[in-house]
Amino acid sequence: AQSVTQPDIHITVSEGASLELRCNYSYGATPYLFWYVQSPGQGLQLLLKYFSGDTLVQGIKGFEAEFKRSQSSFNLRKPSVHWSDAAEYFCAVGAPNNNDMRFGAGTRLTVKP
Amino acid sequence: EPEVTQTPSHQVTQMGQEVILRCVPISNHLYFYWYRQILGQKVEFLVSFYNNEISEKSEIFDDQFSVERPDGSNFTLKIRSTKLEDSAMYFCASVSGGAGEQFFGPGTRLTVL
Prior knowledge:
The complex is a heterodimer of chains A (113) and B (113).
Chain A (H helix, E strand, L loop, with lengths): L2 E3 L4 E5 L4 E3 L2 E3 L5 E7 L6 E6 L5 E3 L5 E5 L4 E6 L8 E8 L6 E3 L3 E6 L1
Chain B lengths: L4 E3 L2 E4 L5 E6 L6 E7 L5 E8 L2 E5 L7 E4 L6 E5 L8 E8 L7 E2 L3 E5 L1
């Protein structure tokens, strides 16, 4: 079964600084890849997804992620972080043949003023 | 825009009681899922459901749990004889089919006392 690792449990960045959240996956073929954001006490909001095609995907709220097959990675980036971006971010990997999805442990983002 | 709904938003129960968490997936979706998120932890896959039967389940989904699609719209998760450690946020999700982005409901917070 597929699995995903988010190496960073907690990241703190200053407002206006750039951001990169790491995600590595394990799957035998090309997976479906997702990034979700969760604010405290809230549900999961999809930021972006990769199924096929262009390996650089654009999402909502100014986020983007790049699929790198050679590194089994799907890192999330944002050029300039806003205070409202403070939240928990989950990377998820899905198997195209069965739609089942597995989540990483999450990275908590804190934004300093 | 169609969305997945879940009721109740918060359920409080006594240890040993049975609870039923309800979900209404998006109407033309064919695959349904339950996930669990213990407070402060990652989102964990519980079970996937397709064509009126379980297609995959995790180690967490033992005999204490069951799922059902009792009619054309609802998708329920039953937890028998609840334990303190069942306290968590439970998310329902659905997918239209084939290559799929899972659409998540807002979650039900279950508190077992």
